[in-house]
Specification:
This protein has helices at about 70-80, 100-115, 140-150, 155-160, 215-225, 265-285, 305-315, 320-325, 330-340, 375-380, 410-415, and strands at about 20, 30-35, 50-65, 85-95, 125-130, 170-180, 180-190, 205-210, 245-250, 295-300, 350-355, 360-365, 370, 385-390, 395-405. The chain is of the alpha+beta class and about 425 residues long. Strand 12 and strand 13 form a beta hairpin. Helix 2 (about 100-115) packs parallel to helix 3 (about 140-150). The longest helix has 23 residues, at about 265-285. It is globular, with a radius of gyration of 21 Å.
Length: about 425
């Protein structure tokens, strides 16, 4: 599918945010690498990624709320409990979930990397992604650590590639901004294509910055940010067992430390949002088998929680997703999804408009259909990015959710994912 270019820094209210190259290596003191070590059967796909910081960095994480969780999450939670980390290691091809020795393997990965980098094993964030319930052998990883460390450099492409599973496109971005007169940089990579419906984050995301910010304020910034970014993405309604988003901030930009709310904290949050919004939309656009990014923009809800639930109900509807795939302006399916979301709303005041680069077509007003051109609607819905704009009459709250269409290829991919 065509990759949608999104997340422009110009969308931020902070004009000083500027998109740059480099991904997770854009910030000072960070290196990254990726290699094939033997976890995957396909030797043409890298399966082991590494990100390192020159100095110990403040660290914040958010994790899946699925009760079934991968062993790396438990190990990472323990390792970063002091608010600091120096490196991130991630394998693809195996989720290391529901394995009897999963914690042992995840701990072993940290220990192997710690020795190779001469850092404490407890300063390592460990992550895994891939098939659930498949035993993970430590041997390929042990043999791959040396080449992985040797592959470290200032290009994040290999790391972005090594964390991919069914993803078609690498997902990486970086921005430059200013704090206390000091130029700072922030960048990220992510993976996610299927089993995506967050209760916190939707996939694996790794963000690095050279901004100086305390672990407590970093955690606050990330925990707030995901509510409007990663938490608003859904490809198929399934919450993964291994979802994790991690951010490292090493302070090497030299700005005055962000220790409390204020202008610098707000500017940092804006830069973080630029990264996470780009990655979130990229994940939705690259959903398994997807051909279209669907953005549901809902306004006029009674409160924020209602706006979130209603907008996500629309992008999660299999029938809405199928209609978007077929470029069919079947707006009744949108109202149906609003009606079963479990949120009280005045259905007689609902309005729906479909829009894209090809134009806009109003299809529903005050809960009933309006005359519209089927030809124009078809052209609007044939674009690779479609907005479903919904207006309610319940209040002033709004939310934006990101999803994708449902295609034949989604079933093909997931029908034989393990075998």
């Amino acid at each position: 599918m065509k990759q949608t270019v999104i997340g422009s820094a110009a969308e931020s209210k902070y004009d000083a945010i500027r998109q740059i190259d480099g991904g997770v290596c854009a910030a000072k003191g960070f290196l990254a690498g990726g290699v094939y070590c033997g976890i995957r059967k396909n030797k043409s796909k890298k399966d082991l990624a590494l990100i390192t910081s020159q100095v110990r960095a403040a660290c914040a994480c958010v994790y899946t709320q699925n009760l079934v969780q991968g062993a790396p999450i438990a190990v990472t939670k323990a390792n970063v409990s002091d608010g600091y980390a120096s490196a991130i290691i991630c394998n693809s091809g195996n989720a290391n979930t529901c394995n009897a020795n999963g914690v042992e393997i995840a701990t072993g990965m940290c220990e192997l990397l710690g020795k190779a980098l001469n850092i404490s094993a407890s300063d390592v964030v460990v992550a895994s992604t891939g098939v659930i319930g498949k035993p993970l052998d430590i041997e390929p990883i042990a043999s791959g650590i040396g080449p992985l460390v040797a592959a470290l450099g200032d290009d994040s492409n290999a790391a972005a590639e090594a964390i991919m599973t069914t993803d078609v496109h690498k997902k990486e971005i970086a921005f430059e901004f200013t704090l206390s007169g000091k130029v700072c940089r922030i960048g990220g990579i992510a993976k996610g294509s299927g089993m995506i419906q967050p209760n916190m984050a939707t996939m694996l995301g790794f963000v690095t910055t050279d901004a100086n910010i305390t672990p407590a304020m970093l955690q606050k910034a990330l925990s707030v940010d995901i509510l409007d970014s990663f938490n608003m993405v859904s490809v198929d309604g399934d919450t993964s067992t291994n979802d994790m988003v991690t951010i490292l901030a090493n302070g090497m930009a030299g700005n005055a430390a962000i220790e409390a709310d204020g202008a610098d904290y707000d500017a940092f949050c804006a830069a973080l949002s630029a990264v996470t919004q780009y990655l979130s939309r990229s994940i939705a656009a690259d959903g398994e088998g997807a051909t279209k990014l669907i953005v549901c923009k809902l306004a006029g809800a009674a409160d924020k929680a209602s706006a979130i639930k209603l907008s996500k109900s629309v992008i999660n509807s299999p029938l809405v997703k199928c209609a978007m795939f077929g470029a069919d302006a079947n707006w009744g399916r949108v109202l149906c999804a609003l009606g079963y979301a479990g949120v009280p709303t005045d259905v007689n005041r609902v309005g729906v408009t479909f829009s894209s680069a090809a134009g806009a077509v109003e299809v529903c007003k005050n809960g009933t259909g309006v005359d519209f051109s089927e030809e124009l609607a078809k052209q609007v819905l044939l674009e690779s990015e479609i907005a479903i704009e919904i207006t309610l009459g319940d209040g002033t709250a709004f939310a934006t959710a990101y999803g994708c269409d449902l295609t034949y290829d989604y079933v093909k991919i997931n029908g034989d994912y393990r075998t």
